[in-house]
Amino acid sequence: MTGPYALPTENGAQCTVLRHSLLEASVVRRRISLATRRNRMKSSHQSVIVGEKRGRPALVPPPIVETDFAQLEDGSTVELIEDPEMPSRTTLAVYKDGEVRYMQKVQSQGQILVPLSRNSELASNVRWARGIEPYGSVELLLSELFSIFDQYMDLDPMYSLLLANFVLSSWMVDQLPVAPYVAIVGPPSSGKTRLLQILRSLCRRSILTADITSAAFYHFCWGFRRR
Fold first, then answer.
1. pLDDT by residue (tens digit) across 146-171?
2. Do strands 69-71 and 111-115 pair parallel, antiparallel, or not at all (unpaired)?
3. Which of 23, 24, 115, 185 has a CA-to-CA distance to 129 between 20 and 30 Å?
């Protein structure tokens, strides 16, 4: 038998190859080809999955930011104070809807706010508030401040009232368009040092220093401003 189903032998005779044997061989080849194709597709699919897993962005924890003051999106106000229970460290006083909570960390806008360390160069010499107490009313608070200056200083009542307002403004300077300044001048032994000591005890975040340069003063204030 000649044709595609006949193979020559050494003696030139024709050897008939059964049709069904060739068909079986063809089926086997097709199965092998199909299996190989499936394996390739499976391998490709696995590569895609692995690639997606490797390319998936890792979970990054929110950054920790030291702060001394912040206004949160929910209306809360955060103020850095001395921890009433542990004076050697600072804490955050969080005020909202007439209530105050002391917290060591506050999460807001993808950040974790923590108190500025008491041991840092910026905070070590600052006099921080030592707690939160009700003050009654602004009129009562101004009256008490006026009484302090009137009792311990020999000043004209107008200046005592001016200093009382200056102290009060230091506690809300973050809400003012400009920061008020007060200049204390007078001859020797006129009470300037005592007045500075009183202001240090009453003003927010006070620091008492002498002969500070303009550059050092700017660096100190900017350290708070950038936080």
1. 999 999 999 999 999 999 999 999 99
2. unpaired
3. 185
Q: Which two tokens stand for residue 128?
A: 């921080």
- pTM assigned to the model: 0.66
Rounded distance, CA 186 to CA 108, Å?
48
Two tokens, residue 42: 């499976």
Quick one: which H or E segment has residue 82?
strand 77-82
> Which residues are paired to 101 by β-bridges?
94
Q: Is 122 exposed, middle or buried (0-12, 13-18, 19+ CB in 10 A)?
A: middle
For the chain, how big is the Rg over CA atoms in Å?
41
Give SS3 for 126.
coil
* DSSP output for 175-219: GSSS---------TTSSHHHHHHHHHHHSTTB---SS--HHHHHH
pLDDT at 11 over 70: no
Angle at alpha carbon of residue 156, lines to 154 and 159, rounded to 5°: 105
Domain edges within the chain: 6-55, 64-115, 138-225
Contact 116, 104 (CB under 8 A): no
State the Cα–Cα distance between residues 125 and 111, nearest whole angstrom: 27
pLDDT value for 40 = 56
